[in-house]
Amino acid sequence: MSETDTTSVSNRSEIIFLYDAEDCNPNGNPLSANNKPRIDETTGQAVVTDVRLKRYLRDQLDDDDEGIYVRNPSKAPYDNVPTRDELFQHVTGLDEDEVDEMDGETVTDAFLTNATDVRYFGATCSFSENFQKALGEGFPGQFIGPVQFEHARSLHTVATKTESKQLSTVVASSEGDQQGTFASDNRLEYAFIRFHGIVNEVAAETTNLSSTDVERLDSLMWRALKNQTLTRSKAGHHPRLYLRVEYGTDEYHNGRLDDGIRLDETASKTDTELRNITDAVLNVDGFLTELANDAAHIETVYVKADRHIKVAVDGEVTGPDTLIMELKAAVGEDAVTEIDVYGTSE
Amino acid sequence: MRLLVDLVAKADAAPDPTYHHKLRGRIWQALRGTPFDEEHGNGEPIGFVYSNIFPWGAMAADDERQVLIASPREELLTAIAEDFKDNPAFNIGDRPFEIKDLRVLDIDVGEPTTKGTLETATGVVVRLFDAHREEFGIEDDHDAPTYWRPKHAIQPFRQAIADNLQYKHERFLPDYLPGPTDVEGHLFTDYELLKTYSLPVTVTTDVEIDLVLSKWRFEYCVRDDDHRRHLNLALDTGIGGRNGLGFGFLNRRQADAH
């Protein structure tokens, strides 16, 4: 079970997270034949839902022995899909009798203390009639998550990989869900995905999201993309750039910072030629301008940049070191913190 | 990436220490008619390695056995899996099996700072080339290949497996990523030699050579993302030479699984 400090986070943050996906399926659409990658048919961009990203994060929290409420059936140590009553009891360690003896507020605190994912992303809590009765009226039916991401889109139109399109199902594995099987699949040649999210300090009060939780996000998102994409359809994902802009002004955020990061049309290969990170150059001019305009509201910019990214600033193609320098020029030297994901000062 | 093949023995049979080329033959049989068939015998590593059929030892009919096939090339494993599904007969010399199930395993040494142990499940073949002999002052006055032996000490072994893995890195991974000899630091923090032995091995039809093999236990501590990729590549391709005969197959110790 995880412990958390009870002080809710007080600053709003805006998160931009870019990762790329080579020869894989960034987000299959389960309603399509053969789990086809989600693509916006009008723009030709790949789409990745917030649910996909949250699944990576929940699975990483689970691997890190943080308690989570919405567990992944393929990772959890049970055979059948558990009921919500069971999920609640698993994460809190409380049985129905113990819950019955506690008042609603105490049960809520116990739940939020132990269910790390609910503090981030919220949850809908509908239980069996008996269990609901035991919980009492003080237990809310729904927690709104203070950390919300929009659906992500690729920075370019994508091409579906054709070689493996017709792979037939060759394995009927009894443990297929656990290990993955060879089955029909569809992949994208390449997709540079951009996520945008907000940490809302007002909603944080209702789920007890702490500043420790928010700091944890800075390494969690990077590590989740590294560790939770080892399966066959997801191998080929790499986190490339993470930025969390923490605001000092109450209830303020820019809201469009992500739009300022795009593929540089001149320096990048054309959309159909993109195959890996060496083909792509990020243009960050718009982002840096927005950041400079909002400098008075910004307390800290937390940044983690992969050393392989190329960045175009004022028409010049440079690397991540220049990006850090430009960030400091935009918001001030002391307002930029580089994230050490593994605590190894890589 | 690994393919775990569940087998059932179809007859009683004794263990067969000369299984290497017979098992290789079954895998190439699976690749017949696929684009990979054209790579057969072109002198370049195709990029697969396999375990022995385990548990080792005599078997009785209906006994269950397993074999692991690893590769960094997913399409190659897929082609093998397709054939195994369609043709479940798995006859390795005088040891007949039937394939019961196939599973894909995603093995990872872990993220930076993770410590662990890798063990060689089959012997490692390390050939010391002229550059190694010169660098480490190894004098060999005949023309036969020099295989690493304990008398050569650990340094040439360490260098030779890193050079070999660098070659595989250049072959199977994108150019912009640094390989094992492009970065500072050794692959492993500790190299524990368990034993050395020699084995007559059929390398091609009618050609049998005596290979000098060694078994090892390696300790590692993942330094960074590059190192993680190098160790995972070693799990996918095997270390040292003759991987196409199943030599150099690595396993992560179960106790380290997480």
UniProtKB/TrEMBL annotation, chain A:
Keyword NADP in record: no
Keyword annotations from UniProtKB, A to Z: Plasmid
Stored InterPro entries: Cas7_Csh2/Csh2, CRISPR-assoc_prot_Cas7/Csh2
Highest taxon, organism lineage: Archaea
GO terms for biological process, alphabetical: maintenance of CRISPR repeat elements
Name the record gives this protein: Type I-B CRISPR-associated protein Cas7/Csh2
Gene assigned in the entry: cas7b
TrEMBL record, chain B:
Keywords assigned by UniProt, alphabetized: Antiviral defense, Plasmid, RNA-binding
Keyword field contains RNA-binding: yes
Gene3D superfamilies named among the record's database cross-references: 3.30.70.1900
GO MF: hydrolase activity, acting on ester bonds; RNA binding
GO biological process, one term: defense response to virus
Taxonomy, superkingdom: Archaea
Domain CRISPR associated protein Cas6 C-terminal: 118-251
Protein family (similarity comment): Belongs to the CRISPR-associated protein Cas6/Cse3/CasE family.
PANTHER family per record: CRISPR-ASSOCIATED ENDORIBONUCLEASE CAS6 1 (PTHR36984:SF1)
Protein name: CRISPR-associated endoribonuclease Cas6
Organism of origin: Halocatena salina
Taxonomic lineage from the root: Archaea, Methanobacteriati, Methanobacteriota, Stenosarchaea group, Halobacteria
